[in-house]
Write a structure and sequence with these properties.
432 residues; four-stranded antiparallel sheet; 3 helices
C-alpha cells in the first residue's frame, strides 16, 4: 500500500514538472528595458527588452520610429545585457539563463533599419558587460564580468577569447584608424575601487637603486612584492589589433592572458597636488567617442559617496599611443555617480548626455538622473531626476535632431525626451 502511494505521488510530481508554464505573449509591450540604440540615420530606435522578472519568458528588440511609435518587436531570449549599432549592424549580448547555460551573442543585419534580421549567433562562457564596434571596421569587442575580452571579426563571423584581465573592464574605446582598443577598469556591482594620491619622486633601477625622476610607479609601491596586484586597478590596457593580427595571421588571435606591456598607469590632476604627487585613477563606467575629433574620447568615472572622483573626462591619444586626460566636469548633485555617456552634435551644438544612478544594489539610497550638458562655452545644463525605482532613468540613445529615448528598467517603460541645447530638455511622453 505504501509503495503504491509513493508511486502515485512520484507520477504526479513528474507530471507537474513536465507541465509547461503558461506565459502571456510579450508582443510590443516593454519588459525590463535594459538598453537603447539608434540607427545611423536617426530614424529608428531599438529598445532591448530583457524580461528579467520572467513575466513573459522571452525578450524582444522593440523597434520605434523617431516619434516613439512602436513598429515591430523581434523576439529574442530573456536576460539580454546590451545592444550596440554601427552602420548596418546591430549586436546584442545575453546573460546565461541558468548555471548550466552559456551566454549568447547575436549579430543582426540592419540593411532595412526597421527590420533587424538575425545573421549570426555565438555562445560564450562568461557574463557580458559591454560591447564596442565602429561603422566600416572589421572588428568588434565584448568585455565580460571576470575580466574576459573577446574579439569578433565581421569578415569570417568569428568570435574568439583573446584576454583575461585581472579586473573587469567595461569602459571600452575602439580606435579604428590606429587599430587600438583602450580598456578601463570597472567595479561592476559595488564601489570597491577608490582613487589614491601618492608620491612619485624616484625611479628604481633593475639593480634596486633609487634615481631621481618619476617613473609613474608610486614610490611607496616601488619595492612591493605585490606591485602587480596593487597596480592593476590603476592601469588602462591598450590592445593592438593590427599588431596582433599581423604577428600570427594564421592563428589570429593568440594569447588569452594579461600582458604587462599593454598596461599603462592612469592618473590626472585634481585638487591640491604637489609637483611630485599623482592621483591614480580607477573605476571607469563608460566611454563615448568624440564626434569631431578622432584622437579624443570621453570617459565617465564613478567614485565613492564622499569622494571627488565622480568625473566626466576627456582622453586624448598622444603620439606614443598613451593617453592624456582632462576633467571636463566634476561631480555636482545632478552629475554625481555618472554612468553611461554619449556625445553628439544636436542641432549643431556639441552636447554631452549622461545618466547618473545609485540603486540599492550599490547603495542604501536610490537616485536616477538623465542630464544634457553643452560642451561649448558657456556651458548649459539641465537634468531630470528621480528617487523612485519605478521612475528610473537607465540607458539611452539620441539622434542629431534632439530626440532622446531613455529606458526605465524598473518601470517597464521608455521615456521620449526632446532636447534643444541651450533651451530645454523635457520628457514629452512615456511608453509602456
Amino acid at each position: 500500500m505504501l509503495r503504491t502511494l509513493l508511486l502515485a505521488i512520484f507520477v504526479l510530481f513528474v507530471a507537474a514538472c513536465a507541465h509547461e508554464e503558461d506565459f502571456p505573449p510579450l508582443g510590443k509591450r516593454i519588459a525590463s528595458p535594459v538598453d537603447v540604440a539608434v540607427s545611423d540615420d536617426g530614424q529608428h530606435f531599438y529598445v532591448l527588452n530583457a524580461d528579467y522578472d520572467r513575466t513573459y519568458d522571452h525578450g524582444s528588440i522593440l523597434v520605434l520610429d523617431a516619434t516613439g511609435k512602436k513598429l515591430r518587436a523581434i523576439p529574442i531570449p530573456r536576460l539580454a545585457r546590451n545592444l550596440v549599432v554601427a552602420g548596418d549592424r546591430l549586436l546584442v549580448t545575453f546573460d546565461r539563463s541558468t548555471a548550466r547555460d552559456e551566454s549568447a551573442i547575436q549579430l543582426y543585419d540592419l540593411s532595412e533599419a526597421s527590420t533587424p534580421k538575425l545573421q549570426k549567433s555565438w555562445a560564450i562562457a562568461c557574463m557580458p558587460l559591454d560591447t564596442v564596434m565602429r561603422k566600416d571596421f572589421a572588428y568588434f569587442f565584448i568585455s565580460c564580468a571576470q575580466g574576459e575580452l573577446f574579439i569578433g571579426n565581421y569578415t569570417d563571423l568569428s568570435l574568439k577569447h583573446v584576454r583575461t584581465y585581472s579586473h573587469p573592464r567595461r569602459a571600452l574605446h575602439l580606435d579604428p584608424q590606429r587599430g587600438l582598443l583602450y580598456a578601463f577598469v570597472t567595479a561592476v556591482n559595488r564601489q570597491r575601487f577608490n582613487d589614491v594620491t601618492l608620491v612619485d619622486r624616484f625611479t628604481l633601477s633593475e639593480q634596486g637603486e633609487e634615481r631621481e625622476g618619476a617613473d609613474d610607479i608610486p614610490d611607496a609601491w616601488a619595492r612591493a612584492s605585490d606591485l602587480a596586484l596593487r597596480s592593476r586597478i590603476f592601469q588602462y590596457a591598450i590592445y593592438d589589433i593590427f599588431a596582433a593580427r599581423d604577428a600570427k595571421p594564421t592563428a589570429f588571435p593568440w594569447q588569452k592572458f594579461e600582458l604587462s606591456d599593454e598596461l599603462h598607469w592612469l592618473y590626472f590632476p585634481r585638487g591640491q597636488e604637489s609637483d611630485d604627487s599623482k592621483t591614480y585613477r580607477t573605476n571607469f563606467y563608460d566611454s563615448a567617442p568624440d564626434p569631431d575629433a578622432q584622437d579624443s574620447f570621453y570617459l565617465s568615472q564613478r567614485g565613492a559617496l564622499d569622494s571627488t572622483s565622480n568625473n566626466i573626462v576627456r582622453a586624448t591619444i598622444a603620439e606614443n599611443r598613451k593617453l592624456k586626460f582632462k576633467v571636463i566636469h566634476s561631480a555636482d548633485d545632478e552629475l554625481r555617480f555618472p554612468g553611461d555617456i554619449e556625445v553628439r552634435s544636436i542641432n549643431a551644438t556639441k552636447t554631452l548626455l549622461s545618466n547618473s544612478f545609485l540603486s540599492r544594489v550599490s547603495s542604501s539610497r536610490v537616485f536616477f538622473a538623465i542630464t544634457a550638458r553643452t560642451l561649448t562655452q558657456p556651458h548649459w545644463q539641465k537634468s531630470c531626476t528621480s528617487q523612485q525605482r519605478h521612475a528610473s532613468y537607465y540607458r539611452f540613445a539620441a539622434n542629431e535632431h534632439g530626440t532622446v529615448v531613455v529606458s526605465s528598467f524598473y518601470g517597464n517603460r521608455v521615456h521620449i525626451f526632446q532636447l534643444q541645447p541651450e533651451k530645454d530638455f523635457v520628457c514629452t511622453k512615456s511608453i509602456e
